[in-house]
Amino acid sequence: MPAHTAVADAITSRRSVRGFLPRDVDRELIDRILQIAASAPSGSNIQPWKVHVVQGALRDTLSRQLVAAHEQGLPSQREYEYYPVQWRSPYLERRRATGWGLYRTLGIQKGDRQASSLQHRRNFEFFDAPVVFLFAIDSDLEKGSWLDYGMFLQNIMVAARGFGLHTCPQAALANYPDIVKKLLSIPDDQTIVCGISMGYEDPDCPANRFQPARMALSEFVTFHDG
Ligand SMILES: Cc1cc2nc3c(=O)[nH]c(=O)nc-3n(C[C@H](O)[C@H](O)[C@H](O)COP(=O)(O)O)c2cc1C
User: Fold this and answer.
1) In the 8-state DSSP scheme, what is residue 43?
2) Low-confidence stretches of the chain (pLDDT beneath 70)
3) Contact assessment for residue 32 and residue 155, using Cβ atoms and an 8 Å cutoff
4) Is 205 helix (H, G, I), strand (E, B) or coil?
């Protein structure tokens, strides 16, 4: 396969998988993926990423604690705004299309709070993935470093595809930073960015049938030529 095809395949076959098989991922494979991801560019090469790989018993404990917080109905304590504080068009429509699209795939009716809360809870079970990455950043770093971080995160997800693995990026895993910091001994002067669950896709999981559409080029590209 020509290199450009392999690259395009790895990028376009990445999607958010929300159901994983109970199959472990080799430690060497995790190391390789992180090594590849670390070739990401960053302004002045400052490499702002700090990665916590959570597996085994600690993964289960983290899941239990996050699920408990979710069950108690604790509001998100995320340390930064991920979404617009005031939703507006066209983002509101896109957000709704994605949320409702997933729920439609799962047969969850609009307004069925119990069913949607149960699906949301799956975030904190890491969708059964055996490996969870938690990402932290020094809180005094600026927006540019968050730009760098995004490139690093995408590298992880694309590199994982190259080895037949799938991922789900999860801002939800930054909802309860105190739990994450305490369990993983992350100091208070760091911010929890998000998490990524990683493993082998469960092809029978209905949630994995959902594939949100993308805009046409004409909707977001302006060519300037002469
Ligand atoms: C930084 C980031 C955080 C996300 N957080 C969540 C999350 O908490 N839970 C979830 O199910 N999906 C989450 N997603 C997945 C998005 O919903 C998904 O990327 C989007 O709908 C496009 O679908 P695709 O990734 O399958 O192409 C997140 C994506 C990104 C990039």
Assistant:
1) G
2) none
3) no
4) coil
Distance (Å) from CA 73 to ligand 1 centroid: 21
**Partners of 198 in beta bridges:** 131, 167
DSSP, residue by residue, 167-178: EEEEGGGGS-HH
Protein residues whose CB sits closer than 6 Å to any atom of ligand 1: 15-16, 18, 98, 123, 168-172, 194, 212
Q: Of the residues 11, 13, 14, 16, which should be mutated to test ligand 1's pocket, given the most ligand atoms within 8 Å of the CB?
A: 16
Sheet (strand 166-170) strand order: 50-54, 131-138, 190-199, 166-170
Burial category of 182 from C-beta neighbours within 10 Å (exposed 0-12, middle 13-18, buried 19 and up): exposed
CA 202 vs CA 13, 20, 192: distances in Å? 15, 5, 28
Phi and psi of 208, rounded to 5°?
A: -80, 0
- Collect all residues with Cβ–Cβ distance below 8 Å to 167 and sequence separation of at least 6: 14, 16, 17, 156, 157, 160, 196, 197, 198
Cβ(165)–Cβ(25) below 8 Å? yes
**What's the pLDDT score for residue 4?**
83
Other beta carbons within 10 Å of 155: 19
- Centre of ligand 1 to C-alpha 225, Å, is 34
What pLDDT is recorded for position 211? 94
Has domain 3-84+124-211 been given CATH number 3.30.1450.10?
no
